[in-house]
Specification:
The chain contains 14 helices and 8 strands. The strands form 3 sheets. It has a 3-stranded antiparallel β-sheet with strand order 1-2-3. A 3-stranded antiparallel β-sheet has the order 4-5-8. Helix 7 packs antiparallel against helix 9.
Length: about 400
């Protein structure tokens, strides 16, 4: 973030009447930024706190020193701090992380806190604000974590002494448990689906792959001889990026009926060269994989409805189902963690020794044997991007 060095700012102090509550003292100043000259203002306090202009001026002195600091690149407001973080740290994050981060900032954080001085963002006020938002606990926890990262950036640069987000209390506990499929429901769904939707659902349910990872697969990543899938990329909003974490890059076992199903699909797929996407879009001449919304909304959800499944399903439902079936099958926690490829042991409870590959393969093979439907692999219609556009826009 670059600021043009500017002359000393005395600023101006004025009294402003409010419709509700006592009048307040407003301090105004201007600064030179990359977008040109910008006029700023901040509420100093109420006339009850500072009955005279002289008292308000004394309160302004410290802030006036801040905006006239020797180093003109020190962010004063949260919006300036966010801009500095976006320019210096955010580009190194995964694409999906960047999108989530920027959405949280643009939608919630900056409209509320953007013009606040860093020193004016208080723990209790942020906690109360989060409590008032009509959002799920998990979403509010993500907003809190986003703000914590921003202020941690300020701390590393020695612009603040303490991070006001550290003591903000915000539970991430779900108010309602997400839906997962019972084993019989999963079998019915797979029997109802046709390829390639069937292959994609079978793959995510039997391996726990994230849909971004499944759509990021190329045939060169699928080793039929070794019975494993090597993960090296993920596709989010058609952006091809690195895996989410180091743990996400671990090979995934592929045995039994799943191996057979993917082998069948490799013979049926319109694009089957080593460098082709496993779930390539014919409408885009195989140059990119499908949008995840297309098979979900056009094929998976209608098939679920036809077989009487009324649960709220998304692609992550199959990953949750995978974990639930593994735990229900009596697998040890560390094996589940390894198969889920969780970076943090908090997600699957911590067990210290790394699970052996034979244990992971045995657990995977047992699960595939459970969910393998009696129906033979079906060949279905290709998905089109005309349908993808409808799905995405909706």
């Amino acid at each position: 973030m670059k600021f043009t060095r500017q002359r000393y700012q005395s600023g101006s102090l004025s009294r402003e009447v409010r419709k509700a509550g006592p009048a307040v003292w407003i301090f105004r100043w201007r600064e030179n930024a990359t977008e040109g000259r910008v006029y700023r203002k901040v509420v100093v306090g109420t006339i009850e706190q500072f009955p005279t202009k002289t008292a308000a001026k004394r309160a302004v002195e410290t802030f006036r020193s801040t905006i006239n600091a020797v180093n003109p690149a020190v962010p004063v407001t949260l919006r300036q701090l966010v801009k500095h973080y976006e320019e210096n740290e955010l580009p190194s994050k995964a694409f999906s992380t960047q999108r989530t981060f920027q959405t949280s900032l643009k939608t919630w954080v900056l409209p509320k806190w953007g013009e606040h001085r860093l020193s004016d963002v208080r723990t209790v006020e942020v906690e109360g604000w989060l409590h008032s938002l009509p959002l799920a606990n998990a979403t509010k926890a993500k907003i809190r974590n986003t703000m914590h990262v921003i202020f941690a950036h300020a701390g590393r640069n020695e612009w603040i002494a303490t991070n006001p987000m550290t003591l903000v209390r915000q539970s991430a506990k779900r108010e309602k448990l997400p839906d997962v499929l019972e084993l019989d429901e999963l079998k019915k769904l797979l029997a109802e689906l046709e390829n390639p939707a069937r292959a994609l659902v079978f793959l995510t349910a039997a391996t726990g792959l994230r849909v971004s990872e499944a759509l990021g697969l190329k045939w060169s990543d699928v080793d039929f001889a070794a019975g494993e899938i090597r993960l090296s990329r993920a596709v989010v909003h058609q952006h091809v990026g690195d895996m989410k974490t180091e743990a996400s890059q671990k090979p995934v076992p592929m045995d039994g009926a799943l191996l057979d199903a993917l082998h069948d699909w490799s013979r049926q797929a319109p694009y089957r060269q080593k460098d082709d996407w496993v779930f390539a879009s014919p409408d885009m001449d195989g140059k990119q994989p499908y949008w995840p919304e297309t098979p979900l909304k056009c094929y998976v959800l209608p098939a679920a409805k036809r077989v009487g499944i009324t649960k709220a399903l998304g692609w992550h439902s199959f990953r949750r189902t995978f974990a639930t079936l593994l735990k229900g099958g009596g697998e040890d926690v560390k094996t589940v963690q390894e198969l889920m490829r969780h970076a943090s042991s908090r997600l699957t409870l911590d067990v210290y020794a790394q699970a052996l590959t034979p244990a992971k393969r045995a657990a995977h093979l047992k699960l595939v044997g459970l969910i393998h439907p009696a129906a033979e692999t079906a060949i279905g219609p290709s998905w089109s991007h005309a349908e993808a556009a409808v799905a995405v826009s909706s």
